[in-house]
Amino acid sequence: MSKNKTPISKARSYHKIGEFWDTHDLADYWDKTKPAEFEVDIQSEATYYAVDRELAAKIQALAKRRGISANTLLNLWVQEKLKDRKI
């Protein structure tokens, strides 16, 4: 964080900003805020599945040899399998 104070809390660290907002209500400072615009790009969602440790090691090794992540390799395999079954 820069050496400048934040406009509302006058804090100089993230910890102090957190402490300020733990004890203050944004509604009391609403007139000191300004609109912000930003984009959120949500394209995928992670879902985790248990994989045997030895199998995971083999997948990781094969993915590394192919120069891709294990996640990418598994997603490609699952896509291929589902395509074959027309699901």
How large is the count of helical segments? 3
Q: In percent, how helical is the residue content?
A: 40-55%
Number of strands: 0
**What are the segments in which pLDDT stays under 50 over at least 5 consecutive residues?**
none
Number of domains: 2
Rounded to an integer in angstroms, the radius of gyration calculated over CA atoms is 24 Å
Mean pLDDT, all residues:
90
As a percent range, the share of strand residues is: under 5%
Distance between the termini: 50 Å
Biggest beta-sheet profile: none
H/E element string? HHH
- Please identify the structural class as seen in this structure: mainly alpha
Form type: elongated
Describe this structure in words.
By secondary structure, this protein is an all-alpha fold. The protein folds into two domains: 1-35, no CATH class; 53-85. It contains three helices and no strands. It has helices at residues 14-22, 53-66, 70-85. It is elongated, with a radius of gyration of 24 Å. The relative contact order is 0.07. The mean pLDDT is 90.
Descriptors for this entry?
single chain, 87 residues, mainly alpha, 3 helices
In short:
The chain is 45% helix and 0% strand.
What's the helix and strand layout?
Blueprint (H helix, E strand, L loop, with lengths): L13 H9 L30 H14 L3 H16 L2
